[in-house]
């Protein structure tokens, strides 16, 4: 049995923040039903690459889920949602604030029919505050939180993170909030409302940067790959690429000087002896270290650094990462069979449970793949379900294809 087996979740989210949260919950064993509009569905379904008219990007954060395509702007569609909500433990949505209320699927409405519901809203700026009504994609949040002014090279243009960092931060924040609320519900029977945002969640991750500002008024600026408080702690150029060096304390610095680059004098006297000296002369330190490291390839230096016990590694391109033997050995690249995409690769599960190991049990669903099944679960008859399809209240992208095959 998986940790969240038996927990029923209705997922009204799209793109990445919400789907990332519900992906992890589904990996943990929860039964996650995506409620999607049609004919487009989750907006991430529009993102390529495409195979057989199905988007690969959607497939990544939507594994282990079911899809019910439902018209929530219709009275019957809302009634169906309310029936599902009566049986649910958790609802997660990422509409712009106010939209859920207009659709009559907001927390107050759902609580009146299911008092123990845990209901989580994820938005760009949160449900309150002067910016609450603004739209908020990841790039907007990266700008507002200052991330783009502390990323990249000194003197360069603002730079975004290489991944959708605020989306993932909001998804992870919603995740631990939901798990905390679920433990509270287990202890008391009480549900509750949770509100997080891309801005709040991302800002909460600026731990060192906030310390520097609150403690000394320092405003974080771009430092390339450098650490703001430690050196050598960055990527250095080698003969054929870059190597990361994490000589983050005095003992490691001395090992680096003596055992790795064979410059023992740097550890004993001169301008690099202690951490403050190294930070005061960090530009010269980078230049001097690179003069040594550029004499040999990255693999040579990684081996020497490893032998000396100094944390280090190569600076990979993403394809090199996915093909690295350690990444492969940790099961971080998995292969699964998708009914439309065929055999696909996906990222593995990053946490390993000793008693209840998690599994990728099924691929992401096509739009409306589980519509009929979910309607039967709330007690609708075959004729009632057929009428809902005819009235375009519900949808299954490949239902007509399946019906044709059955007819043959």
UniProtKB/TrEMBL annotation:
Keywords annotated in UniProt: Transferase
Entry keyword annotation includes Transferase: yes
Segment forming the signal sequence: none
InterPro entries: CoA-transferase_III_domain (IPR050483), CoA-Trfase_fam_III (IPR003673), CoA-Trfase_III_dom3_sf (IPR044855), CoA-Trfase_III_dom_1_sf (IPR023606)
Pfam families: CoA_transf_3 (PF02515)
GO molecular function: transferase activity
Name of the protein in question: CaiB/BaiF CoA transferase family protein
Organism: Metabacillus herbersteinensis
Lineage: Bacteria, Bacillati, Bacillota, Bacilli, Bacillales
């Amino acid at each position: 049995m998986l940790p969240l087996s038996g927990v029923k979740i209705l997922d009204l989210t799209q793109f990445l923040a919400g789907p990332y949260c519900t992906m992890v919950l589904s990996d943990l064993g929860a039964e996650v039903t995506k409620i999607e509009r049609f004919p487009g569905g989750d907006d991430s379904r529009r993102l390529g690459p495409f195979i057989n008219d199905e988007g690969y990007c959607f497939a990544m954060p939507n594994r282990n889920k079911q899809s019910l395509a439902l018209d929530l702007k219709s009275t019957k569609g809302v009634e169906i949602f309310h029936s599902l909500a009566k049986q649910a433990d958790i609802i997660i949505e990422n509409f712009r604030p106010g939209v859920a209320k207009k659709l009559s699927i907001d927390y107050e409405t759902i609580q009146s029919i299911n008092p123990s519901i845990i209901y989580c809203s994820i938005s760009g700026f949160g449900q309150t505050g002067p910016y609450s009504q603004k739209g908020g994609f990841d790039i907007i949040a990266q700008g507002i939180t200052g991330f783009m002014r502390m990323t990249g090279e000194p003197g360069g243009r603002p730079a975004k993170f290489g991944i959708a960092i605020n989306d993932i931060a909001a998804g992870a924040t919603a995740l631990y909030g939901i798990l905390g609320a679920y433990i509270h519900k287990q202890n008391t029977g009480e549900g509750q409302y949770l509100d997080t945002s891309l801005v709040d969640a991302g800002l909460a991750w600026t731990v060192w940067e906030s310390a520097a500002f609150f403690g000394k008024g320092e405003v974080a600026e771009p430092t390339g790959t450098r650490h703001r408080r430690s050196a050598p702690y960055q990527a250095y150029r080698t003969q054929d690429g870059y190597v990361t060096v994490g000589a983050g304390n005095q003992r490691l610095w001395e090992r680096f000087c003596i055992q790795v680059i064979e410059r023992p004098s740097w550890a004993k006297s001169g301008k690099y002896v202690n951490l403050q000296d190294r930070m005061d002369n960090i530009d010269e330190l980078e230049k001097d270290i690179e003069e040594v490291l550029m004499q040999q390839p990255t693999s040579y230096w990684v081996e020497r650094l490893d032998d000396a016990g100094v944390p280090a590694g190569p600076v990979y391109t993403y394809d090199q990462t996915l093909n690295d033997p350690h990444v492969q050995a940790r099961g971080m690249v998995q292969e699964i069979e998708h009914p439309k995409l065929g055999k696909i690769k996906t990222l593995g599960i990053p946490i390993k449970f000793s008693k209840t190991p998690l599994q990728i049990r099924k691929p992401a669903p096509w739009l409306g793949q589980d519509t009929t099944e979910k309607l039967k679960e709330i007690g609708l008859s075959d004729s009632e379900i057929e009428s809902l399809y005819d009235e375009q209240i519900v949808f299954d992208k490949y239902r007509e294809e399946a019906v044709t095959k059955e007819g043959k």
